[in-house]
Amino acid sequence: MQFDRSGLEILGPGECRDLLRHAEVGRIVFTHNALPAIQPVNYVLDGGDIVFRTSRTSRLATAATGTIVAFEIDEFDAATRTGWSVVAVGPARRVSAAGGVTPLEGIDLRTWAPGRRDLFVRIRPEMLSGRRTPDRGDVASSDDAMALDMQ
């Protein structure tokens, strides 16, 4: 296991993709009116891409024009003080009929928000990173390893 300078376990790309495959809701970070914006979305992983649905008139539809976005998922347990976080960064693109809407219509992607969600958006992750809070045993061994590195 590798740890960052703050003692968090660094997750490899394969584990990040596995976590992305099993979560249902994530947060997309995009630019709206030159300011950062964050919005939760239901999504699925299609191949290696993150796919979600939105309204054609939404802020997300406007942002999905090849611009670079960030997408984050996480899980935390306050009682045990454990958890993990995965961040994917890459271009967001609207999926057109020529770009493969038909295969996406068959995937299990149900939105929670009311209203019509008639536009598929695809994010192709170019950067993928993740961190996990280590269990107490890993923290001690990480601290010991860091202490040895400093000697």
Task: Tell me what the structure shows.
This is Pyridoxamine 5'-phosphate oxidase family protein. Residues 131-151 are annotated as: Disordered. InterPro entries: Pyridox_Oxase-rel (IPR024747), Split_barrel_FMN-bd (IPR012349). This protein is an alpha+beta fold and 151 residues long. It has a single domain, classed as Pnp Oxidase, Chain A (Roll), CATH 2.30.110.10. Helix content is 23%, strand content 43%. The protein has helices at 13-22, 59-63, 101-105, 136-150; strands at residues 9-11, 25-32, 35-42, 44-46, 49-54, 65-77, 82-94, 119-123, 127-132. Strands 1, 2, 3, 4, 5, 6, 7, 8 and 9 form a nine-stranded antiparallel sheet that branches. A hairpin with a 2-residue loop joins β2 and β3 (35-42). The two termini are 21 Å apart.
Summarize the helices and strands and which ones pair or pack:
Blueprint: E1 9-11, H1 13-22, E2 25-32, E3 35-42, E4 44-46, E5 49-54, H2 59-63, E6 65-77, E7 82-94, H3 101-105, E8 119-123, E9 127-132, H4 136-150
Antiparallel strand pairs: 1-9, 2-3, 2-6, 4-5, 5-8, 6-7, 7-8, 7-9
